[in-house]
Amino acid sequence: MLQDDVWSYCSSLNLLTPGTRVVVAVSGGSDSVALLHLLCSLRESRHLDVVCAHFNHQLRGAESDADEAFVRELARLLDVPCETGSEDVSVYASEHHLSSEEAARELRLRFLRITALKTGAACIATAHTQDDQTETVLFRLLKGTGLRGISGIAPRMGMFVHPLLAVSKEELQDWLRAQSFAWRDDSSNADVRYERNFIRTSVIPLIETRFPVAKTAIARTANMARAACELFERQTEQVTDNIEILEAGDGKHPGALRLARSALAGLPDPLLQYALEEIFATAGVGPSFERLTRSTQAIRNGRTGIRVTLDDRVMLEVGYQHVYVYGAAFTVRVQGPVELGRFPATVDWFQKRLTFEEKTPADVPSDLRDIGPKEAWFDFDALRLPLSVRHARPGDRMTTFGGHTRKLQDLYVDAKVDRVLRARRPVVCDADAIVWVPALARSAAGAVTSVSHRLLRIVYYSSQC
Prior knowledge:
The protein is α+β, with helices and mostly antiparallel strands. The chain has helices at residues 2-12, 30-41, 43-46, 62-78, 89-96, 100-119, 130-143, 147-150, 169-178, 195-210, 214-240, 261-265, 269-282, 289-301, 328-331, 408-414, 419-422; strands at residues 21-25, 49-56, 82-86, 123-125, 156-157, 160-161, 244-247, 256-260, 307-309, 314-318, 322-327, 338-340, 345-349, 352-359, 375-379, 387-390, 397-399, 405-407, 427-429, 434-437, 441-442, 455-461.
């Protein structure tokens, strides 16, 4: 029986176990209706606790509302709790600059996760079938993908489980008809303007006329690719587990990620590209062949400062010791100058902090040469107030203790400060000139001498550089 085959598949992969509370995502279509019926038929024998969940995307007007009413009635007949949600996908897509498909998926997945938390469910079951696996692998191949893309839909992805991946849509519909179970047909699934619909309705049927077992063959290939991915995962996890998020971005993707350049460069190309896929996913970028190839070449090139445009928001840049993936939210964000005329004072600068304190000669360390690069002492009376903290500007110069006037740009290069991080370094000035760039250089202004009687101590709290 089909329900026994489904349970055997779930048990073999530990997707569902006796006593599990599971949220079933039900659109009203044949696949999800079959999944709900099948899991409900296993409630007694396998002690499953089933919750039905339906999200109304409001994209098809009365048809969408009729789908919701159908699912509610089905849940009532099966005597299972039914959680429903609804949101205007078109408005969300416009606000977040997404396609309707992307917006619908984001909202649906968010609703399902919230439902699982609300009901205390251990997992969320969706009705992806062998047909969906075929469609997904072909879609990714045609768009350009790596090994991870060829692996298709995994049986388990976080909280989400896919109990029907080994079953075809035809098998499910035959089973539903044999049981006299009804379902709803989504008219938008026939619209070949959508790429996935075109693959489903035109490409796959054509392939099957020449290769009747194509779906089974593609599913086998996906399984083998997934096994290879698991091996690659273990071999690259030391790199990808050490992704540093330097600063959060705009909520869509991190502002900037940083990884050790030597660790990436030490991987052979197949593993490097696999690691880059994970990095790009963290940054919200798809792993296209062109992006992977150009990024691999940049890392292999050996030149510092090479940049690769990943999309209109995200860039990869090779630094001295690190490789960065960063978005507009990181590079565009600026802070206005902060003026200081009274002390003590504190300035928060991005995720770091500067403190300014007036001190006496008794507080001065015995040898100022021993203090670290994130602390500086000045003769307070030799500085001209107000002080200010600001960004570096093009053409900025400072006079160092040796009496040499240097461009900040040259000081950054000499100290091997990566370009990506320079905009995040504060510049401390008095009314006349730059007096200190924390963790980089101190000017000759305000030098502490034996006759200094008022002193200013500035400390920069950062683990950045």
